[in-house]
Amino acid sequence: MRSSPLRIRPIRTSLTMFAVSASLVVASCGSDDTGGSQPTLTVLAAFYPLGEAARGVGGDLVSVTDLTPPGQGPHDLELQPAQMGAFEEADVVIYLGRGFQPQVEAALANSPAGVTRLDLLDSVDLLGVDEQLAGTEGEVDGEVLEGDVDPHVWLDPSRMITMVDAITNTLAEIDPDNADTYRANAETYLTDLRGLDREYRAGLAKCRSRVIVTSHRAFGYLADTYDLRQIPIAGISPDVEPDPRTLKAIAAEAKAEGVTTIFLESIAPPDLAKTVAREIGAELDLLDPIEGLTQDQLDAGDTYASIMRDNLRRLAAGLECAG
């Protein structure tokens, strides 16, 4: 076991062609300033990645409001009264269903029939929530979705591409006069996502290890697409922690797999990840689950793609990938 103190690699942010203004991500139900003609559609997005995608497709034709405030995770979203009222005026609500954000679904249940509901979980292949580790006791997934599925679909660029297609088709269907514009905008936005997918496939193709130990069960879809295996410390929600026996089994499995980096997350408590890292002599690094960008990230121009590229850089370093 290495005796050197735990080290966390510093976060490096980068800009991409899709810089998103902080003014477009708001916690209230106010309209975004599009800087152009009057928007045609009013869109509510449950949290940041969905809102960014809607803005990428809709451009000046849509006014998009993110329901989850900057820096807050979507798991525990509590809608404010003004936000509840925004559902009455929305043309489209883009969300993840099956109990991921119960208050969003409750507000939709009481919304006018004319509001278009786009549950993006219906657009992609879903993964079930498996046991944490075979043969261990303890349950770390006390909060799971209906049907025991993992909701973190946005952390897989290939599934994100599919979700953008679903958003494009929905906007084109309810606003057919502008369908060509939505599809052109989407193609521009998707060009970067397709490039991101290719970068992940190339960057994670040849690695010494293919096992990622993460603060919570957020990266299962990424692992599924890019042939990795995730060992999560906490459950679907970062607040659902393992019992001591399960934590010990996680450390033992990580050590047996030769894991040298434990991945913290910006929104998850770090204590358990630090415990596992000390137990096996591993370093610590950060992965961003992109559940809610902070105001500093928004001000810096960070986007879904720029953060996912930073995640790729960290994964490639932690897994000792070639190329």
Note the main attributes of this structure.
Rossmann fold; alpha/beta; disordered N terminus; 323 residues; 2 domains; four-stranded parallel β-sheet; 10 helices
Structure in words:
The structure is a single chain. The chain is an alpha/beta fold and 323 residues long. It has 2 domains: 22-199, Nitrogenase molybdenum iron protein domain (Rossmann fold, 3-Layer(aba) Sandwich), CATH 3.40.50.1980; 204-318, Rossmann fold, CATH 3.40.50.1980. It is built from 10 helices and 8 strands. Strands 2-1-3-4 form a 4-stranded parallel β-sheet, with helices on both faces. Strand 7 (261-265), helix 8 and strand 8 (283-287) form a beta-alpha-beta unit. Helix 1 (48-58) packs across helix 4 (157-174) and helix 5 packs parallel to helix 10.
Whole-number average pLDDT? 85
The number of helical elements comes to 10
H and E string:
EHEHEHEHHEHEHEHEHH
Got a strand count?
A: 8
Concise synopsis of the structure shown:
The chain has 323 residues and is an alpha/beta fold.
Secondary-structure topology with pairs:
Elements: E1 41-45, H1 48-58, E2 62-66, H2 81-89, E3 92-95, H3 102-109, E4 116-119, H4 157-174, H5 179-203, E5 211-216, H6 220-225, E6 229-234, H7 244-256, E7 261-265, H8 271-280, E8 283-287, H9 295-299, H10 304-318
Parallel strand pairs: 1-2, 1-3, 3-4, 5-6, 5-7, 7-8
Helix pairs in contact: 1-4, 1-5, 4-5, 5-10, 7-8
